[in-house]
Amino acid sequence: MTESTLTSQALEAGGTGEVMITLEGVEKWFDDFQALRGIDLVVGRQETVVICGPSGSGKSTLIRCVNRLEEHDRGRIVVDGTELSDDVRDIQEIRRETGMVFQSFNLFPHLTIMENITLAPRHVRHKPKKDAEETAMKLLERVKIPEQAHKYPGQLSGGQQQRAAIARTLAMEPKVILFDEPTSALDPEMIKEVLDTMEELAESGMTMMCVTHEMGFARAVADRVVFMSDGGIVEVNDPESLFTDPQEERTQLFLSQIL
Amino acid sequence: MATDTTPTSATATKPPVQKVTPATWLRENLFSNWWNSLLTVLFVPLIAWALWSIGRFLFVTGRWEIIIVNLTNLMVGDFPREQFWRLWVAMAILAAVGGLLVGVTAAAAREAAVITGRELDTSWRETARRLGPPVSFLVVMMLFVRTATPLLLLVGVIAIGVAGFVLGRRVPHDRRALVNLAVVAGVAGSLVVISGFGGVSRDSWGGLLITAYFTIGSLLLAFPIGVLVALGRRSTLPVVRWTTTVYVEFFRGSPLIALLFVGWLVLPFMFPPEWENITRISRALIIFTLFTSAYVAEIVRGGLQSIPRGQWEAAKSLGLSPWKQTRLIILPQALRNVIPALVGQGISLYKDTTLVLIIGLNDLLRVAQNITQQPQFLGQGLIAETLVFVSFIYWILSYWMSRESQRLEARLGVGTR
Questions:
Q1: Chain A residues in contact with B331 (beta carbon < 8 A)
Q2: How far does the CA of residue A163 sit from the closest CA of chain B (Å)?
C-alpha cells in the first residue's frame, strides 16, 4: 500500500484528519520466527484503533515496536513526526510522548501510588514536586481512586492498580497511549471499571492503540478495528462492518470462535 | 447493660484457649514417647554439666587478670596512648551519625507502618531485644575497666548517639537522603580526626580498632564498587561485560589468605614510587575491598535478576533514561531483595579480617594470642581466657548484625507485594 492510501484510510476513519502514527512495511523476527510481516498502518490523531486476533498473531509485538520495547528489523515507524531510529534521542523523544499500559500493570511496588505517578513528570519533565503532585491528584480523581494516593500498589485491587497505571501514563501528558491487553489479568468484576476509564479517555480525544480481547469495548469505542493473523494485518475496517460483515475467511473463522 | 450488647458470636469465633500446666508442657515437649524420654534423660544432665563447667570457668576458675591488664591492647593495639583523645572524638562523630541514621530509619519505618496499617512493635520487650546485643557487649567490656575516665567518656559517646537518634527522628521527609551523606562524611571525618593533622599512622593501629576499620571501611567501599560491577555484568557492551566478569571470577576464585599475601607483596609496586610508604593496613584494606566487592557484585546481580522484566519496560515506556531506570526503579527493589545476603557477606568479612595475621597485623585475634606471651602471663595457659573473650566480641557483634538485618528486611518489605 502506498502512503497516500494509508493516510486516506486514517482520514476516513475518524480522528481529526491528521496523522499521528505511521507504520510502513514493518517486519520483525525473533530468531528465525517472523513475528511481523509487512505491517502498513496509519493511526490518525485522536483516533482509537483496536487490534485483535488470535494469540501469537503479533498484536503485542506490533504495539511494543511503536515505543521500541521491541526493535523492528525492517520498515519505518513514525510517531508524531519523529521517526524511530537507532538514535537514543529519537527513542527517548517517542517514549516521552507515548504512554503504555501493560497487562500486568507494572506499577513500581516500592513506591506509593502518588510516587508512581509523579516519578516520570519529576525526573523526565523536571516538574516541581508540588505541581506534579497536584496533577497526580487530579488524575487519580479522573480514574476515581483519589483515596488510594498514599498506599502502595500491593494494597490495591487489580482494577485499582490498572487505573493507577493509566493515571501514571496520563501524568506524562502523552500524545498516544498504547494498551497491551489491559484487562486480561483482571477478575471479571474489575474489567468494567478499567474499560470505563479507557472509554472516557477515548472520548476525551486521546489517540489510542489497544490490543484487547474485549469485543464489546472494540464495538463501542473503536474508530477502526485491525484484525491480525500470523504476523500480518488481514483486515482493517470500522467495528460495525468488521464484526457483522468480515471480508476475509480468517476473520470470519476468528469471529465465529469468540463471539 | 453493656455486656448484653456484646454479640455472643464475636466471642464464640475466638480460638479456644488451651491451658498449659507445667505437667502437660513437660509431657508434650520432653516425654512425648519413649525415644524422646530417653533423649531427655541423657541430654538434661549433659547440658547441665556443660553449663556448670562454663559457669565455673567464667566466674570461678577463669583468671581474667590478663584481660583487665590488656583491655587497651585488645581494643587498639599499639595505638599511642597520649593520642587517645582522637579515638574518643572519632567515636563521638560515629555515634552521632550512627544515631542519626537509626533515627531516620525508625521514623521512615513508622510512616510506612501508618500507610500500610501494620502495627509496629514498640513494646519494651522488643526494645530490650534490640538493645540486648550492643548493651551486653558494652557491659562485658566495662567489667574489665578499672578506671573512671573511660566509663565517663563512654557515657558521653552514648549520650551523643542518643541525641543523634532523637534528631534523626525529626529530620523532614525530603531531607532524609542527606543523612546518607552525613554518614559518609562522618566516617571520613572520623578517619581524618584519627590520622590527619599530625595524627596516628595507621601502622600502629591494632586490636578491635583495625577489625572495625577493615569491616566498616571495606563494606563502605565494596558496596558501590560491587553495585557498579553487577551493573557492568549486565551491560550491553561486551568489553564492560567481559572485564567485570573476569574481575568477579578472579577475586571469587582466589583464596582470601593468598590474596592478602600477594597484595602485601605486590601492591607497593603498583603505586607511584613516592607512595612507597603505603601502609600494610591500607594494602589489606584494598584487598578486602576488592575481594568483598566481587561477592557483593554477585549478590547484587542476583537481586537485579529477581526484578521482573515488566519493571524495566514500565520505566522505559515512561521515558526514563537508562541510568534513572536503574537508579530509581530497579536498584531499590533489587537491593531490598538481597539484604540478608549482603549482611551475611558483612558478617563473613568481619570474621575474615582475622586473616590479616598472615601479613603481621595486630588484629583482635592476634593481640589475644600475643598477650599470653607477656612475661607476667607467660606459660600459664591463659589462651583459653583470651580466646573466650575475643570470641565473645566476634559472636555478639555478628549476632547483632544478623538480628538487625532481619528487622531491616521486615521493615523495607513493608507494603510490597
A1: none
A2: 15
Q: A102 at the B interface (CB within 8 A)?
A: yes
Asked if the C-beta of A185 comes within 8 angstroms of chain B's C-beta atoms, the answer is no
Q: What is the pLDDT of residues B319-356, one digit of tens each?
A: 999 899 999 999 989 988 888 889 889 999 999 999 98
Name, in order, each residue with C-beta under 8 angstroms of B227's C-beta and a sequence gap of 6 or more: B296, B297, B300, B331, B335
pTM of the predicted model as reported, rounded to 2 decimal places: 0.83
Tell the CATH topology of B200-417. Answer: MetI-like fold (1.10.3720)
The DSSP output letter for A104 is T
Where are the domains positioned within chain B?
80-199, 200-417
Q: What radius of gyration do chain B's Cα atoms show? A: 26
In chain B, residues with a C-beta closer than 8 Å to the C-beta of A96 are 319
Q: With an 8 Å Cβ cutoff, is A82 touching chain B?
A: no
Q: Which three cell numbers stand for residue B336?
A: 531490598
Cβ A20 vs Cβ A45: under 8 Å? yes
Measured CA to CA, the distance from residue B102 to residue B104 in angstroms comes to 6
Worst-scoring range by mean pLDDT, B61-75, B232-246, B248-262, B312-326? B61-75
Contact B115 A119 (CB under 8 A): no
Residues near A169 by beta carbon (within 8 Å), at least 6 away in sequence: A99, A100, A101, A177, B318
